[in-house]
């Protein structure tokens, strides 16, 4: 197994049980042999939000917003959101900006009727 040697600076300070007792402080420079990092396991066909955003010309936040709106299927793996590369076509041909037309226009101005129907 390949090993990587790393220098580490260690500083240990004790907290005295009573304010009148002295504080002990020890510093040392040591060499630590650690196993080399194995190659990262890469899932083929899956993209992170950053990679999907780069592919579509969007920010990772906008990709997460598509996921939360249900427009882009994704899978959580730990703290990361993974998107299938083939699913990017669902949002690739979107129209930029706000939607237009009667379904959108005036939505924020809707008020309840003055008289409740019986």
Structural commentary:
The protein is of the alpha+beta class and about 120 residues long. Among the domains are: about 5-35, no CATH class; about 45-90. Helix content is about 20%, strand content about 25%. It has three helices and five strands, in the order E-E-E-H-H-E-E-H. A hairpin with a 2-residue loop joins strand 4 (about 75) and strand 5 (about 80-85). The longest helix has 10 residues, at about 60-70.
Structural class: alpha+beta
Shape: elongated
Characterize the biggest β-sheet: 3 strands, antiparallel
Radius of gyration: 28 Å
According to DSSP, the number of beta strands is: 5
Mean of pLDDT: 78
Oligomer: single chain
Order of secondary-structure elements: EEEHHEEH
Task: Tell me the span between the first and last alpha carbons.
Answer: 80 Å
Helix content: 10-25%
Low-confidence stretches: none
**What share of the residues does DSSP label as strand, in percent?**
25-35%
| Count of runs of 4 or more consecutive helical residues | 3
Strand order of the largest sheet: 3-5-4
Keywords:
3 helices; 118 residues; 3-stranded antiparallel sheet; 19% helix; alpha+beta
Summarize the structure.
This protein is an alpha+beta fold and 118 residues long. 19% of the residues lie in helices and 27% in strands.
Secondary structure elements and their pairing?
Elements: E1 3-13, E2 25-35, E3 46-47, H1 49-56, H2 60-69, E4 75-77, E5 80-84, H3 89-92
Helix pairs in contact: 1-2
């Amino acid at each position: 197994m390949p090993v990587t040697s790393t220098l580490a600076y260690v500083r240990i300070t004790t907290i005295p049980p009573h304010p009148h007792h002295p504080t002990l402080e020890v510093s040392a420079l040591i060499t630590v042999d650690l196993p080399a990092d194995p190659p990262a396991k890469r899932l083929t066909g899956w993209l992170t939000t950053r990679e999907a955003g780069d592919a579509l010309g969007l920010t990772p936040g906008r990709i997460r917003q598509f996921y939360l709106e249900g427009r882009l299927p994704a899978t959580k793996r730990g703290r990361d959101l993974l998107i299938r590369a083939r699913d990017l076509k669902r949002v690739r041909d979107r129209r930029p900006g706000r939607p237009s037309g009667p379904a959108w226009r005036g939505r924020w101005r809707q008020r309840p009727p003055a008289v409740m129907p019986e």
